[in-house]
Design goal:
ten-stranded mixed β-sheet, 336 residues, TRAP transporter solute receptor, TAXI family, D-Maltodextrin-Binding Protein, domain 2, TRAP_TAXI, signal, 13 helices
Length: 336
């Protein structure tokens, strides 16, 4: 597979990476100003020596996206035949859709509902974006966390409370609003603080907020760190509320987080949502093929490097509600 990818990339990366580089050069003013550098040496690619650098948009420190994106970047760097990929700290799921669409990052992690909304130009996006999915990944869980001795036991109890809701542009708001709607509440009924997951749980530890959120696979590093100093519990969603939540947004599902994940007295019951890897729809087909192969030819290594990668399979990867990029689809068609 390595030799095949090298041949493919040697033949096409001069065009593909040059295109990406031109897009980035013309659109370098994005929100994160990450300065994607794909195609930094297109001439080298043309001669068969690959030296293109790609960036992957992740999220803030303390969640699952950054280490997951780092694991992907390592695989691409090691197995693509000469590309280098680096993870970028960003605002998270919503911002990554905008950053990929604008060309400020080459590839990004997001939630499937946000990818769908970005492609269709629906809230929180105001225009349609030319994005494709590379693969469906693992499910994220909306952690709504309080200290074990907190009097907050239900979503209904959030009214009037100080809530660290995650970074602005992150993915927590949509599932939080869905949960609150089921209880007759809106975001206006809480006092939100838009903080990174790490900062949010630091503020929870210091007593400056009452609740902290993280949308991540479990165990989430920010929650794990907090739980080493204080016993925690989930603010669970009641069983009878899930039907209305899922009916309004079929991207959501029910996830039970085992009590021993964070040393809790009882399981956490939370909203889950699938994550996807996205690229611009005009990214070179063979470049996307090489990225896809770098990941899915090495799933055992991926799973060994990142706990969430254990939930990534080639069977579920191809089942996305947003169009799969032709380069990824070619790989999946070859591996039925």
């Amino acid at each position: 597979m390595k030799s095949r990818m090298k041949k493919l990339l040697s033949a096409v990366l001069a065009v593909g990476l040059m295109t990406a580089g031109c897009q980035n050069a013309g659109q370098g003013g994005g929100a994160a100003n990450t300065g994607s550098t794909a195609g930094a040496d297109a001439a080298g690619a043309a001669s068969g020596t690959l030296s293109g650098q790609l960036s992957i948009g992740t999220a803030s420190m303390g969640g699952a996206y950054y280490p997951f994106g780092q694991a992907i970047a390592n695989l691409v760097t090691q197995y693509s035949g000469g590309l280098t990929m680096t993870p970028e700290v960003t605002g998270g799921a919503v911002e990554n859709c905008r950053l990929v669409a604008s060309g400020d990052v080459d590839i990004g992690l997001t939630n499937e509902n946000h990818a769908y909304a970005a492609v269709n130009g629906t809230d929180p996006f105001t225009e349609k974006s030319d994005l494709n999915v590379v693969a469906r990944l693992y499910p994220s869980v909306l952690h709504i966390i309080v200290p074990e001795d907190s009097p907050i036991n239900s979503i209904a109890d959030l009214k009037g409370k100080r809530v660290a809701v995650g970074p602005s542009g992150g993915g927590t708001i949509a599932p939080l609003e869905a949960a609150m709607k089921a209880y007759g509440l809106t975001i206006d009924d809480i006092v939100p603080s838009y903080l990174s997951y790490s900062d949010g749980f630091t503020q929870l530890s210091d007593g400056n907020v009452d609740v902290a959120l993280a949308l991540a696979g479990y165990p989430a590093s920010a929650v794990m760190e907090f739980s080493t100093t204080k016993a925690v519990k989930f603010v669970n969603i009641d069983e009878d509320k899930f039907d209305s939540i899922i009916e309004n947004d079929p991207y959501f599902n029910k996830v039970v987080v085992p009590a021993d994940t964070y040393g809790m007295k009882e399981d956490g019951v939370a909203i889950g949502i699938n994550n996807v890897l996205i690229v611009r729809s005009d990214m070179n087909e063979d470049l996307v093929y090489a990225i896809t192969a770098s990941i899915f030819d090495h799933l055992d290594e991926f799973a060994a490097a990142n706990a969430n990668a254990k939930d990534v399979t080639i069977e579920t990867a191809r089942e996305a509600s947003v169009t799969i990029h032709p380069g990824a689809q070619k790989y999946f068609d070859e591996h039925k």
